[in-house]
Amino acid sequence: MKRLGSWQTILGVVTALVVGLLPVSSVRAATRADQWEAVAVDAITAFEAADQGGEEAHAYAYMAGAIARLYGWSDPRVQVYLDKVYALRKPDGGWGLNGAYDKFNDGTVNPATTTYTVTITDHVGLVLLDAYEQGLVPAADIATLVSLTMSTQTWTFSNGQCTAYSRSSNDAISGTAPANQRCVHNVNALAAWWLRKANAAGFVASGLNVRVQNITRHEVANYLVATTWWPYRGTLQPNDSDHNSADAEAMYDLANPIGREVAYQMLTHTYTDNAMAPMAHLRLVGLPPAPGSMSGATTLWCVLGDGWLTEVTLFVANAPTTRSLAQAAYWASRNAKVC
Q1: Within the chain, what is the greatest distance between any pair of CA atoms?
Q2: Residue 39 to residue 69: CA distance in whole angstroms
Q3: Which residues have CB under 8 Å from 82's CB, separation 6+?
Q4: For residue range 110-125, what is the model confidence (pLDDT) as tens digits?
Q5: Please, what sign has the CA dihedral across residues 324, 325, 328, 329?
Q6: For residue 196, what are the β-bridge partners?
Q7: Which CATH number belongs to the domain containing residue 253 in this structure?
Q8: Euclidean distance between CA atoms 25 and 43, whole angstroms
Q9: Residue 57 sits in which domain range?
Q10: Closest listed residue to residue 155, CA positions, set 179, 136, 128, 133
Q11: 285/37 Cα distance (integer angstroms)
Q12: How far, in Å, CA of 82 to CA of 249, rounded?
């Protein structure tokens, strides 16, 4: 047996043994940004191991976005995942789900060719807009998504407008029950938020700014001040925490005082309403700087996010679906860059 020659050698062996027992993410997580990067890397790795090639378009879009943030848009995996997204494009140029779906459980089943509002805005649309700005997606494809969002059926209420859940007539909104209950608030808010972002990137459409204004009015009017929450849809059934965080992010831009208050409440409370609840914290930590939302040189959201690192690490380790790993990677990668 070789004899250890010095205390430095002994220390090195002990350190190596300890490091070998710890996850890579635990060893290299020194700064706040490192910790969020570790979450993102673990989620990317787990997704790549679990994916069997049959995920929805938004899972592959999230993976492209997460990898691009961490490793750059030139990483070859980005194009691989964008190709997977484009392979799932619908006949009208939008995106949706892989199969048929009866959203409101009313016996009207949307075919697999249906384009869904939240998919072309918050899910796939966010990543494609970033990819366009990097020269990886043609302007015509973003213009198509703007056109599809703007031409999706809406209903005008006395307090603003609501965008239908999908482009299928099965999901159309009207002023009478039960169709007046088909206004899904996070989908509506995210549509306005995405249109605003696309407009800032140079994409225009007749009536776009008025649409954003009218949607914002409707979401402000439906905000539940007493609970700092939104209903999920017109039934007044409360949002789950994951969808409420999406509302909060959209309204952080569209009506900042309201979005800010919801974000603060959500990042200072624990939620266990469903398996996706940790996604609310994952998403809101990466909110951008804004007046009243800073803590020294960083955002208040990054500071509050420190308290949820254990939660999200466990979420990634025990993810309910392969798709949720891609979503976790996407938001954690943003946190790594913002924080």
Answers
A1: 85
A2: 13
A3: 60, 61, 64, 131, 136, 137
A4: 999 999 999 999 999 9
A5: negative
A6: none
A7: 1.50.10.20
A8: 11
A9: 35-338
A10: 179
A11: 13
A12: 25
